[in-house]
């Protein structure tokens, strides 16, 4: 092997005067710096696993920079961390003394005394290399044999063969490519839909009449609901596309909730656009729910909205309620005036019960009661509409329920005598009957039969609310 002639740095200064020197050598200099940095980071990570301790990465990078500068002054190469030599020094018990001896050998070689290494027996050097190589093979092939998956073992063997035959950088590039490919394949197999159901199982917060609720139970399968999660890219979106391909023709609406999605790839947007085009010949209506992170991408899906049946919503509630209204209207249900006192069969009983209630009128937007108030009243909605609102820690207000005429509200806090957990407000001008706890005590004494019917009605309503809550919890598991 012929040694390259060495020249001191001051003899190279004339080349720097050439204006084309920087532009000719800058790409190569950047590549060398990048490779040296990546090599240092990967070597540190590997040595941490081997040494079973954590290194100060900032300190190592400073040392790498100082060594590179010192080597450049002497006209040498960029220094890099050597995993093999470091492990050899550590397992041989050399410590800092071993590093010092290695430095002395390098200086001796620099000044022409490199022949002294020939006095070390070659079998000893070969044995050390063999010991180190077998130790690394045991660590990376034999030890993970019982814990790593077959795909991971195949990756390790392939990377090892590439490094042995083509060098470290080829193995590194192959490892990055294989890791990305395995991640994409694995992530595309994960269930992207946290909720996949229909309106026969999932309902809005609107309190419906028994007739409307029966329609939703029977016809709710015609409205599908998908609540997506995670990051949506081509692979995961294609899974949804396969579901839609097998979808029956009688589906009237599809709700897709993107509010829990962290991001949508442009290729996934193309998949959803293709899904919309496929349904142009149908009457299917789409409700797309977007969040802060997905608004732009979700609205981009609507570029192909030539059918005019795509509705954008900010919350899932805003999508489910109109889908229910549309389904109920299509199946012939007509809203009729309902009374909250339907549990009383005869008019005399209703008149007697109302005698213990107070009539109250509330303008639209006004509060009937506030969260935290003492609950001494239960309300029967005679006309108008009420909403139950809950303030969150991030200063948002969630709608827990929407009530139409004939609904009763506030019964749980009324019976438990605890502070109200939500506020109740009038969505439009409304009229309510108010029953106070003192009046209920008088009713129990004078008309125990009417009080018993009222208690039975409350129990029936609470049981329905618990059943709905259990269904929702089962869906979100």
Short overview:
By secondary structure, the chain is an alpha/beta fold. It has 17 helices and 16 strands. Helix 8 packs parallel to helix 10 (234-245) and helix 11 (266-278) runs parallel beside helix 12 (295-301).
Question: What is the global morphology?
Answer: elongated
Q: Kindly state the mean pLDDT as a whole number?
A: 78
Distance between the termini: 68 Å
Gyration radius, in Å: 37 Å
- List the domain count as a whole number: 4
Count every beta strand, where a strand is a DSSP E run of 2 or more residues: 16
**Order of adjacent strands in the largest pleated sheet:** 1-3-5-7-8
What structural class is derived from the secondary structure elements? alpha/beta
Would you mind describing this structure in some detail?
The chain is of the alpha/beta class. The protein has 4 domains: 9-141, no CATH class; 148-189; 193-330, Transcription Regulator spoIIAA (2-Layer Sandwich), CATH 3.30.750; 347-476, Jelly Rolls. It is 52% helix and 16% strand. The chain has 17 helices and 16 strands. It has helices spanning 13-16, 20-51, 57-73, 83-91, 95-110, 122-142, 150-166, 168-189, 210-219, 234-245, 266-278, 295-301, 316-330, 347-354, 411-416, 437-446, 448-476, and strands spanning 193-198, 206-207, 223-228, 230-232, 253-257, 261-264, 285-289, 310-313, 358-362, 367-369, 377-383, 385-391, 397-404, 408-409, 423-426, 430-436. It has a 5-stranded mixed β-sheet, with helices on one face. It is elongated and about 120 Å long. The two termini are 68 Å apart. Residues 1-19 have low confidence and may be disordered.
């Amino acid at each position: 092997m012929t040694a390259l002639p060495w020249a001191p740095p001051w003899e190279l200064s004339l080349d720097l005067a050439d204006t084309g020197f920087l532009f000719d050598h800058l790409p190569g200099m950047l590549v060398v710096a990048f490779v040296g940095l990546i090599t240092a980071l990967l070597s540190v990570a590997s040595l941490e696993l081997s040494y079973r301790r954590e290194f100060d990465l900032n300190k190592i990078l400073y040392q790498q920079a100082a060594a590179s500068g010192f080597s450049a002054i002497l006209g040498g190469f960029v220094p890099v961390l050597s995993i093999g030599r470091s492990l050899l020094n550590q397992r041989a018990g050399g410590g800092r003394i071993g590093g010092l001896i290695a430095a002395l050998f390098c200086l001796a070689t620099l000044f022409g005394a490199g022949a002294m290494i020939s006095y070390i027996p070659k079998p000893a050097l070969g044995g050390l290399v063999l010991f180190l190589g077998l130790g690394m093979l045991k660590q990376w092939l034999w030890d993970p044999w019982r814990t790593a998956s077959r795909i991971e073992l195949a990756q390790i063997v392939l990377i090892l063969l590439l490094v042995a035959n083509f060098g470290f950088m080829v193995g590194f590039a192959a490892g990055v490519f294989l890791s990305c490919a395995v991640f994409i394949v694995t992530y595309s197999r994960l269930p992207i839909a946290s909720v996949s159901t229909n309106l026969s199982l999932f309902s809005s917060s609107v309190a419906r009449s028994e007739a409307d609720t029966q329609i939703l139970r029977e016809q709710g399968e015609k409205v599908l609901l998908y609540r997506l999660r995670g990051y949506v890219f081509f692979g995961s979106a294609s899974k949804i596309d396969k579901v839609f391909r097998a979808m029956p023709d009688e589906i009237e609406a599809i709700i897709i909730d993107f509010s829990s999605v962290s991001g949508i790839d442009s290729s996934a947007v193309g998949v959803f656009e293709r899904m919309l085009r496929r349904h142009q010949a149908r009457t299917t209506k789409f409700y797309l729910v977007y969040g802060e992170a997905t608004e732009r991408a979700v609205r981009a899906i609507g570029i192909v909205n030539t059918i005019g049946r795509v509705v954008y919503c900010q919350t899932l509630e805003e999508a489910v309620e109109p889908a229910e209204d549309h389904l109920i209207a299509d199946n012939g249900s007509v809203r009729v005036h309902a009374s909250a006192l339907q549990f009383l069969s005869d008019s005399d009983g209703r008149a007697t019960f109302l005698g213990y209630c107070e009539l109250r009128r509330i303008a639209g937007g006004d509060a009937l009661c506030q969260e935290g108030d003492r609950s001494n009243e239960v309300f029967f909605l005679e006309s108008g509409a009420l909403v139950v609102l809950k303030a969150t820690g991030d200063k948002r207000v969630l709608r827990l329920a929407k009530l139409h005429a004939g609904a009763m509200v506030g019964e749980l806090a009324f019976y438990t005598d605890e502070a109200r957990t939500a506020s109740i407000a009038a969505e439009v001008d409304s009229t309510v009957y108010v029953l106070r706890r003192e009046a209920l005590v008088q009713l129990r004494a004078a008309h125990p039969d009417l009080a018993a019917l009222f208690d039975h009605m409350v129990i029936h309503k609470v049981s329905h609310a618990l059943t709905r809550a259990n269904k929702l919890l089962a869906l979100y598991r």
